[in-house]
Amino acid sequence: MINVGTLQINRRYTRILIDTGAQRSFVSESFTKGFNEPLVPMTQTLLVSTPLGDDIERDSHYPSCEVEVEGQTLTCDFAPLGMIEFNAILRMDWGEKHHAKVDCYTKVFKLESGEGLILHFEGDMGKATSCIISVVRARKMMKK
Asked: Which residues partner with 55 through β-bridges?
């Protein structure tokens, strides 16, 4: 399941994609220009396959970015990646870390904060371009 919406990352509003099939959380390289925290080396190089079939290596990340949902701060580990349509892609393990429950009918993500509060994120999936959805579907089909 994928969902599109707007959240704050490191106190800046940004367009995000939540993709439960993504293998990693990514942040746009252009969006990171406003980050105060430095890139940290990864213990292992990450090989990323793009929807166009290119392979890109990444060897650094932002391990503790702040993602705000309903006024509560959750953390996320992002690898920088050249993206245009979105400033961030959140993967399923981020949801797992925050005990996410996905309502496929209403397209609402329910997350649990560190204090046990239930947070809701309702994206605007209907406004996503069919092109982006096609690219995500194509990527998933190529993995099969």
From this structure: 49
The DSSP line for 20-60 is TT-SS-EEETTGGGG--SPPEEEEEEEEEE-TTS-EEEEEE
| pLDDT, tens only, 79-135 | 999 888 889 998 877 777 878 787 777 778 788 777 777 877 777 754 444 444 444
Residues 119-133: tens digit of each pLDDT: 777 777 544 444 444
Closest CA to 67 of 21, 108, 98: 98
Give the pairing type, strands 72-81 and 2-9.
unpaired
How far is it, in rounded angstroms, from Cα 84 to Cα 135?
13
Domains of the chain: 2-143 (2.40.70.10)
Nearest Cα to Cα of residue 26 among 119, 91, 111, 100: 91
The answer to whether the beta carbons of residues 39 and 62 sit under 8 Å apart is: yes
Global confidence as pTM: 0.77
